[in-house]
Structure formats: C-alpha cells, structure tokens
Sequence to fold (101 residues):
Amino acid sequence: MLSISPFNYKYTKIILLFLSKLLDFLIKFFPKAILTAAMEMLAGAGEAAAMSRKPEIMADAAYVILTKENGSYTGNFAVDDDILAAAGIKDFDTYLVDPSE
Fold:
C-alpha cells in the first residue's frame, strides 16, 4: 500500500502552489503579433511576416515579469510590448520578423 509521508505531502502542496501561480501567469500573458502558421494561412506568408514579431519578444517580456520582486506583479493583464516598454525598452525593431517593413 502506498503511504504519503508528511515530507511528500509538503512538497506536493508546494508543487501545486507553484503550478497554480504559473497557470495564473500564463492565462494573463499575451503576445501582440507573433508569426504563426495560422497567421500565414489567413494573411499570406509575406503579409503575415510584415506585421509580426519573433517569439523572442515573449521570452524577454516573461523574463521581466519573472524577475520582479516576489508578489509585486500578480493578477495583471500583460501584453509583451507593454511589459518591455515599462521596463525601458524602446527599440522593438529587433523583434520584427521582417525588419525591412
């Protein structure tokens, strides 16, 4: 028979708490315009690329959020370029899929 020790129970609670915080973060964090297969299908490859950004913008915005002081940024609706602009980043051309546009 499987027995749950207090040690395992404690860490199970910690993991569940972490996952609930992570899920809360993921639900409220959105990209503004990332190039996806769906965008290419609907708008055409060239036009979709001209108005899209690389996924790296999401990674950089997630880094800004995750490195904030614990508990200082919860329950917010976050859009990638808004987060980076608030962090002082002003040049978003490096994130463009097609920099010539």
Summary: DSSP finds five helices and two strands in the chain. Residues 6-27 form the longest helix (22 residues).
